[in-house]
Amino acid sequence: MRYAPIVIALAAAATARAEGNRTLHLAVHGSVDGAALGDAIARELGVDVAVVEGTCDVPCLDVSVDGKRTATVLYAPRAGSTRSRTIKLGTNTTQWQLVITLLAGNVVRDEARDVLAGLPSRELPRPPAPEGLPADPYPGEPPADEGPAGEPPTAAGPAGQVPAEAGPAAGDPAGEDPAGADPAGEGLAGEGPAGEPPPAEAPAEEPPEAPEPPPAAAAEPPPAREHSFLAFGVVPGLSTDLTHIGTVRHFLSIDLLVGVSGGSSGLSLSGIADVERGLVAGFQIAGVAAIARRVAGTQVAGVAAVSGDLDGVQVAGTAAVADQLDGIQAAGVAAVAHRSAGTQVAGVAAVAGRDAHAQAAGVAAGARGNAGLEIAGVAAVAGHDANVQAGGVTCVARGTANIQIAGVVNVARRLHGVQIAPINVAREVDGIQIGVINVGGSADGFSFGLINIVPGGRHDLEAAIDSDRTGTVLFRHGGRRWHNVYGVGGHRVDSSGSGSNDDVWMYGLGFGPSLAFGHTVIDLEAIGWQVNHGPRHESDVSILGQLRLSIAHRMGPFALVAGGILNTYVTSDQQSPLILERRTDGAPMSTGVTATTWPSAFIGLRI
Known about the structure:
The chain contains five helices and 40 strands. It is mostly beta strands. The strands form three sheets. It has a 27-stranded parallel beta sheet that branches. Strands 33-34-35-36-37-38-39-40 form an eight-stranded antiparallel barrel.
């Protein structure tokens, strides 16, 4: 089970009473049975639990479950600071009650930390034991059962010894807080501060007093946060909260101009600005600005929405800002997450301080860490790896890129997928580049383009002549598995007696795969040639297509090459020498475009 470690850790806490024998008030929000949860918490804490709706008097335990299967437990004791914990519940709804119950017990018992923080240090000198004080009657065994709180335990044994200190577990190192400290103060009966021995029933003489402990360094804890079902106001101070500004958590709060509350579990609505100093588990709506420490619901503002941790939805007309984003941000101008971001949508810019799951922006989308999906009208930038990037002008990944699509240029440190743009640049290529100009740093990738620049790749020059007496000079460059080829060629035509020059000259380009076996290389290439005659450049259709298979064997600095060609000549010039040489009958009746196909072989030298 995914959350088994959390459940085990919570269940390991020792059961203790919370708030003595007082009634604990429970407010439940979300898809949880409040009555069943109240019974479970009562059994866990050993106190009476009253399930309430609306206003919750202290001691109050507020449980909220949002639509993303996240539970938030907030505990407001009679004295001391309010505490809250949040946990993901998972998809198994049958386990929700158990997880929330254990979490509630953990939150309530944490009150012991406030008590222990004010106790004097265990390092204070101990007073001498009074005469006649009984020692532990059973050395090495746990102390006898305690009596009611505040009464000393019955002890017997030789005078001058003190009972062994009763901690939560034997062997706990001195100076550490006990793991299962009781928040209600039900520890060993009669034990004084800092582990002082309990007084005897009839001490022979009064022991000297311990030195006065130093005052606690911690400041006075803030007052407990109140809960109210309904609140109305105009501005802070002119509201039903009176002087309790920012300390009352509401279910429904309506402020004409500005509202300041301690949190919201339902709806908080303000005409200009709404400020929540606690958790927002419902809706927070403001005409200009909505501000909250943590949002697990929905935050909407006409101009700016600002949150600490956001695990819900944030919508703003101008800017949406969050510290940690696990939900959705949407803003007319800018969506900003100081740390990691879930989903960001902005009219101009979407920015994440760390990783981003999904970003969409009209101008720029940027993440300092990894990016899942980035879509931007101009630029998509990832500080580390990028899964999918699409930019109107450019995409940049400073780490590994899987898919990059841009209108002008793609740049990545490593490419493990596909780059599609007029210009593609990658330092290491283990994928496919498709564009006009491709620059890759690995000879094992595939680059499809007019110009492929591959440092450490293939570069060779070949001169050959075929069985039709057509000579060619070819230049190849690219990777070891895929390359480009550029060439020029010519074919001398015997025009004696005609007085005209019909010599064939042509230029072309192509591409194809390569396969190497030691010193032998096999190339399969598709090449297209523009065929011209004499001094003129043909204005008619005159294209020669070749499927060329060659085998080259290297011998020293040179390679001997031979192979075969399948030629197809497409032209509207019925008097082209390439057709006349192969025509066996008279002039054709048609004057349209014709296609002529024939095979040929060639031999050459490659360097």
